[in-house]
Specification:
This protein is an alpha+beta fold. Helix content is 33%, strand content 16%. It has four helices and seven strands, in the order αββββαβαββα. A three-stranded antiparallel sheet has the order 2-1-5, covered by helices on one side. Strands 3-4 form a two-stranded antiparallel ribbon. β6 (76-80) and β7 (87-91) form a beta hairpin.
Length: 137
Amino acid sequence: MASPEQVKQYLAYWFQLGKPLIFDQGESVLPQPVVEGDHYSPEFEACWQRILVSGGSNCYLDGTIQTIGELLSEKWEMAGCARCSMPVPMLSLGVQSGPCPCFDLPTWPNLDLPLPRLPVDSRSHLEQIRARLSRQQ
């Protein structure tokens, strides 16, 4: 089962590549920026809250067929795409349906560009490095 945090990360990665979220009214939403330093942007968090309030049943990532509500069910889990290693939904049991959202991105994967990322707590990361270095001395 994909946790809500994994689904949130999945959306964050794909939003950074320009894949919008499509709502049932035909509305396309692409929060930008997605990441601001060590946290998600207010625009991204507002989009995520909108998804949670609706249960995700009225929206899907462009290029996919599963609603976000379906991804939040116990039928789905997140795995890496064989082509581009980005997170993609996979059925926990049964036959996979639908391609990776990267199928219609002609310039992806492009390892010359920075890869999408999640927020990074730089202070925590630097503290871990400092602790490792102090143990080696």
